[in-house]
Amino acid sequence: MAERFGGYQNEIYLQGLAGTTPAFSTDPTTLDGAASGVLTPEAYGYVAGGAGSGATMHANREAFDRWKIVPRMLTGATERDLSTTLFGATLPVPVLLAPIGVQTIVHPEGELATARAAAALGVPMILSTASAHTIEEVAEAGGDGPRWFQLYWPSDDEVCASILARARAAGYSTLVVTLDTWTLAWRPQDLDRAYLPFLKGEGTAIPLSDPAFRARLPRPPEEDLPSAILQWVGMFTGTDHTWEQLPLIRKLWDGPILLKGIQHVDDARRAVAAGMDGIVVSNHGGRQVDGALGALDALPGIAQAVGEKIEVLFDSGVRTGADVLKALALGAKAVLLGRPFVYGLGLAGEEGVRHVLRSLLADFDLTLGLSGHRRPAELSPAALHRD
Ligand SMILES: Cc1cc2nc3c(=O)[nH]c(=O)nc-3n(C[C@H](O)[C@H](O)[C@H](O)COP(=O)(O)O)c2cc1C
Ligand SMILES: CCCCCCC(=O)C(=O)O
């Protein structure tokens, strides 16, 4: 029988009998507040902050709140199977960890702890190009866990080829190319503190360890970090790629490729036309375009237009099991969890990420069953009502 993720609920109640409670609350209304108590103000501001007025971050939550689940009864949903198939691989749950850079700003073990937590549950971690640890180190930490890699597409094609070759050699199966952050948006929380982690070398481990990147440097980063960082800034920000250049990525990666940051139906259609295997409907958690539409509002139209042709994944604002259910019902095949796992990492390292993930998955499992469904594939817009 498939693992019953909802069983985490019983595990927690049993802990209560033994006189213990979880290390921290995963209540989505208080989790980020708890994290703010342990992170530096700079790190917390960087993670929690959004672009401009924060309107898009709010729109992400408002979009979820407009949809309500309509539970069905007597459907025999006691036994459930949450597994889902993506690109020929079976995942235990339709949830992945979103690519999040610079995780060492919240915990010294950063991506290594996250990789271990994700692998323990069989959940793919999408490793960011802006990782604080190298591709190879994170692969080793994740052991047999499923590995996806996220590309920030550098302006230098040889560096791009080298990074992707390393990811492939290290066993990463699936590539996510993020399109919405070719330069950083106006982020008041960071600007008020004049804080950008990359300028201190945080989150630059992948290029700085890359032979093709190092070949561009006047001196090795170990001797002259400021020059290496300047080179990083020049190569990874302010880039000017267009749809016409996507064939290069296809040439460099022989596995599935998804484009992340899609919010318009026409861009989704272009992804299909470009031969991509999937997209992630996402507004980067409201960190890029202030005033953009809530990501969930973009999902149904996009899923309807291209969902039969490519895999449609979703992120931006997922906080609860109900949110996972709503996104799947509106056409996503799987969702990416973002900020909540970073808060878990900050609060309790590997165990914190595991606690956040297991709580979300148990919540999703129970919500799925209690609303009358046995499998994610049974979900459709008919499971929801829009206010
Ligand atoms: C601190 C932080 C760092 C991020 N770094 C990356 C990154 O390196 N690559 C990327 O594609 N997205 C990155 N994202 C965006 C996430 O992948 C995801 O789209 C976003 O967190 C979803 O919004 P949510 O966390 O509010 O649900 C980052 C987000 C945060 C909060
Ligand atoms: C090339 C831009 C690097 C940004 C990496 C972190 C990120 O995505 C974020 O939202 O912050």
Report on this model:
- It is a single chain.
- By secondary structure, this protein is an alpha/beta fold.
- It has a single domain (7-379), classed as Alpha-Beta Barrel (TIM Barrel).
- 43% of the residues lie in helices and 12% in strands.
- It contains 16 helices and 12 strands.
- It has an 8-stranded parallel beta sheet. Strands 1-12 form a two-stranded antiparallel sheet. It has a two-stranded antiparallel sheet with strand order 2-3.
- Helix 5 runs parallel beside helix 6 (135-142), helix 13 packs across helix 14 (295-306) and helix 15 (321-329) packs across helix 16 (339-370).
- The longest helix is centred in the C-terminal third of the chain and has 32 residues, at 339-370.
- The protein is globular, with a radius of gyration of 20 Å.
- The model has no long low-confidence stretch (mean pLDDT 97).
- It binds flavin mononucleotide and the ligand CCCCCCC(=O)C(=O)O.
- Flavin mononucleotide (FMN) binds at residues 46-47, 98-101, 128, 130, 150, 178, 260, 282, 284-285, 287, 315-318, 338-339, 342.
Please, what is the oligomeric state?
single chain
Structural class: alpha/beta
Number of strands: 12
Helix percent band = 40-55%
Q: Approximately what portion of the residues adopt beta-strand conformation?
A: 5-15%
CATH topology heading:
TIM Barrel
Q: Whole-Å distance between the termini?
A: 37 Å
| Average pLDDT | 97
- CATH architecture group name: Alpha-Beta Barrel
Number of helices: 16
Please report the first level of CATH classification, the CATH class.
Answer: Alpha Beta
Radius of gyration, in Å, reads 20 Å
